[in-house]
Every structure is written in structure tokens, then in C-alpha cells.
TrEMBL record:
Lineage: Bacteria, Bacillati, Actinomycetota, Coriobacteriia, Coriobacteriales
UniProt organism field: Collinsella aerofaciens (strain ATCC 25986 / DSM 3979 / JCM 10188 / KCTC 3647 / NCTC 11838 / VPI 1003)
Homology family: Belongs to the metallo-dependent hydrolases superfamily. DHOase family. Class I DHOase subfamily.
UniProt name for this protein: Dihydroorotase
Pfam families (UniProt xref): DHOase
Known function: Catalyzes the reversible cyclization of carbamoyl aspartate to dihydroorotate.
């Protein structure tokens, strides 16, 4: 039966929509968009007061399956994604076995089709076993549906290795996504190197450890002509380097996480909260402000979560022994609305570009547009719903949110993936 979504405020800059219109969904597609639609026989849902946008995509998510299902699996990770308003996620390849060949890509895809609450776009490793020593089976992975290459969790340490991966792999037309971290310079760095690391007696992870590889990778993208995407950028200077690369015509894009925008090293204190241990680390207030500005002015292309679930017992270890990462799927949209949109710093249209349009463009996915004929991947949210992070637990198997206890305004209520509802009134379908 056709479904008529009435009275939502629809925002989709790709079709210059920003106003109240009705949207008719028929099977997996949008059948009609217009004012005061009346369709005989259609089920009607009133979405007055809510926003409806093209389905959000998070292009940086760790679903942990295969291998680390104790932290998260494809079912629980995509459930968290649906709860957060996402219609699709790009899964990172640091699984066990590593997603470095077509068989593992096929497993992730088929598992997602079986148990997923949203679309899963698998990425494949650049190097075998993420070891940085030999190229992965890039062609095989693309043939099985990999949308991007990345050694996320690690940077490719050898410049020559990165060059070979890009030179060979660019024929597949996919983007190379770089986690930038010079391991020799960063060593066992735990948090941003500076006053806070000194005060807390934790080894420092210097900004230059990230910036060096951002600069290097942009040079290698220029050399090879490959498409480069800088992951979870965290420093003001790193952003300057990307800005310069873009201005020079290099095919480079970048992403930022809510935690690098809305948390800083100053949130770390003598309680040694390991949920705040992330890689790259939380930086200074100046860095966070520069990232927020970059998001607003277009230097940052996409907002991603780097959703990195870990078990409570892993995160209960001493700070130095706890793994890096925090979950983010269930808070990302709400944080962006609360901190950037509701405060008037950024438009709703820009949010849609950062969280729906650009991620699809960078990953080479078909765009979703709020117009007749488009696939019905849609996100609906209540801009005034107020809630407290963690109060009602999480859909994710993990609980390592760095935002626990924060009160946010704005939350996803309904999600449609190919016309099929995955979230209804805030509940997983
Ligand atoms: O904080 C992080 N956690 N950063 C990464 O790059 C990897 C991720 C993980 O896999 O836990
Ligand atoms: Zn990473």
C-alpha cells in the first residue's frame, strides 16, 4: 500500500526544497512530492512539526563483524544506525579476518542483507591484513561490492606502499580513505600532546603525527591522480593543509566527527574517562573551533561518527591499556542539530549536504533526492525532541559514548530504507 507522509518540512538542497510538502512513497520509491497531496487508498502519516530529508549516510562506522561480535555486530550496529536516523553506513575493514578480499566483503554484504536495519556499504583494506606490506585484493573486493579502500585504524606507513596502492587501485574508480597517523612520531601517544597530557601524565599524540600524513597523502594523490579522502580530521593545521590541497586542484575531500567538534582535550581529567580515548585524540578548543568552521564553510565535506564500539571491560582497563574509540551513531544527528543548526551557526540544508549528499558522492553511491522516481531512503526527525544521552541505554551493544549525560535537542523519529520503515516513532521496526 502506498504511504503518504504529510506536512513534514522537507529539506533537500539538491532539488532546492525547503518547505512543507507531502511525500508519497509507493513500494521502494518516491512516487510524488507536492503540496496538499490526496491519494485514494494510501495510508496517511501526519509529520507536522517534523523535518524530512534524504536518508543520512555515515561513511565511517565500525560494525566489528566478522570477528569482534563481542563489541558489536552487523545487527546491533545497524540497529544503532537506524535509531540515529541513518539509512546507510560504510563499514570499516578492521575486522577479523580483515576485510581485504572479496570473500569477506561478500560476507559483510550478505550478513547485512539478512539482519541489517540499514544499508551497509563495505569498504576494503588497502593492504593485506592492514599490515602496510602488500596490496589487498582490490579488484576482487570491488567485484563483490566494496565502495572504498582504507586501512582505517592505521595509516599506511610507507609512502611507496601508498603510491602503489593508489597507482594500481585507481582504475577501479573508488576513493582511498586515509587514517593519518605516523606511527614513529605518535608512538604510544594516548591523548593530544600538550598541557593536558603533561598534567595527566599520559604520553602525547602530537598534532604533527596526523598532519604529516595528511600532507604526504595529498602529495601522493597529486602524484597518482587517485581520489583521496582524509578521515576524522582533528587539527586546525590539518584542515589548512586540506584547504590548500583543494585549492591546488587535488582530488581531496575530508570528514570530521562530532567528538572532534564538540569535545576537546579539556574534557579529560583525573577521572581518566576512557570513553574519551579516541584516535586521533580530542584536540584543543582552537582545533575544535577550526573544524566546526570548516564544516560550516565547506572545507569539511562530510560528518561521520567513526562509531567505534568496545566492551565495558576493555574500556574499564587503565587508560593506557583501554582501546581507542567511542560510539556515535545514536548521537551524531542530535549533536549536529543541537550544536550547529539550533544555534543558527549552520543551515539545515548544509546539514543535509554533510550527512546525506556528500557521503554518497564521495563513496560513488546513487544520490537520494526528495523527488518522484528517487529511491525512498528517507530520514524524519523531530527538531525539538529533548533527550539525555545514555538515559535509556543504547541500541548499540556498546556503551562507550563520550557524550553520556549530555542533553540534546532534536532526534530521529522515522527512517525509511527503500520505502521500508526501519524506525517508527523512535522505535526500531
Ligand atoms: O578511535 C578509533 N577507533 N579510531 C580508529 O581509527 C579506529 C577505531 C576502532 O577501530 O576502534
Ligand atoms: Zn581511523
Amino acid at each position: 500500500m502506498a504511504l503518504l507522509l504529510k506536512n513534514a518540512h522537507v529539506v533537500d538542497p539538491s532539488v532546492e526544497l525547503d518547505g512543507v510538502v507531502d511525500v508519497l512513497i509507493d513500494s521502494d520509491k518516491i512516487a510524488e512530492v507536492g503540496e496538499n497531496l490526496a491519494v485514494e487508498g494510501a495510508e496517511v502519516r501526519d509529520l507536522s512539526g517534523k523535518y524530512l530529508v534524504p536518508g543520512l549516510v555515515d561513511m565511517h562506522v565500525h560494525l566489528r563483524e566478522p570477528g569482534y561480535e563481542v563489541k558489536e555486530d552487523i545487527e546491533s550496529g545497524t540497529r544503532a544506525a537506524a535509531k540515529g536516523g541513518f539509512t546507510g553506513v560504510c563499514a570499516m575493514p578492521n575486522t577479523d579476518p580483515v576485510t581485504d578480499n572479496g570473500t569477506v566483503v561478500e560476507f559483510v554484504k550478505s550478513r547485512a542483507a539478512e539482519v541489517g536495519h540499514c544499508r551497509v556499504y563495505p569498504s576494503g583494506a588497502m593492504t593485506r591484513g592492514l599490515k602496510g606490506e602488500a596490496m589487498s585484493e582490490m579488484g576482487d573486493m570491488v567485484a563483490h561490492g566494496a565502495v572504498a579502500f582504507t586501512d582505517d585504524g592505521r595509516g599506511v606507513q610507507g609512502a611507496g606502499m601508498l603510491r602503489r596502492c593508489m597507482d594500481y587501485g585507481k582504475m577501479f574508480g573508488k576513493v582511498f580513505m586515509s587514517h593519518c597517523q605516523d606511527e614513529d612520531l605518535v608512538g604510544h601517544g594516548q591523548i593530544n600532546e600538550g598541557k593536558v597530557s603533561t598534567r595527566l601524565a599520559l604520553e602525547g599524540w602530537p598534532a604533527a603525527g596526523e598532519e604529516l600524513q595528511i600532507a604526504r597523502d595529498i602529495e601522493i594523490a597529486k602524484l597518482t591522480g587517485a581520489k583521496l579522502h582524509i578521515q576524522h580530521i582533528s587539527t586546525a593545521h590539518g584542515l589548512e593543509i586540506v584547504r590548500a590541497g583543494k585549492a591546488a586542484g587535488v582530488q581531496v575531500t575530508c570528514e570530521a566527527t562530532p567528538h572532534h567538534m564538540f569535545l576537546t582535550e579539556n574534557d579529560l581529567d583525573e577521572t581518566y574517562n576512557t570513553s574519551l580515548k579516541v584516535n586521533p585524540p580530542l584536540r584543543t578548543e582552537e582545533d575544535a573551533e577550526a573544524i566546526r568552521q570548516g564544516v560550516i564553510d565547506g572545507t569539511v565535506d562530510a560528518i561521520v561518527t567513526d562509531h567505534a564500539p568496545h566492551t565495558p571491560w576493555e574500556k574499564a582497563r587503565e587508560f593506557e591499556l583501554a582501546p581507542f574509540g567511542m560510539i556515535g551513531l545514536e548521537t551524531s544527528l542530535s549533536l549536529v542539530l543541537t550544536e550547529l543548526v539550533n544555534t543558527g551557526k549552520m543551515s539545515m540544508g548544509r546539514m543535509v549536504e554533510l550527512m546525506a549528499i556528500k557521503p554518497r558522492e564521495i563513496l560513488g553511491l546513487d544520490q537520494v533526492q526528495v523527488k518522484a522516481g528517487s529511491v525512498a531512503d528517507l530520514t524524519v526527525f523531530d527538531p525539538s525532541a529533548t533527550w539525555t544521552v545514555g538515559e535509556d541505554g543504547y541500541e548499540s551493544r556498546a556503551e562507550n559514548s563520550g557524550f553520556a549525560g549530555r542533553t540534546l535537542t532534536g532526534r530521529a523519529t522515522d527512517v525509511f530504507v527503500g520505502g521500508k520503515q526501519t524506525l517508527a516513532d523512535g522505535c526500531i521496526c
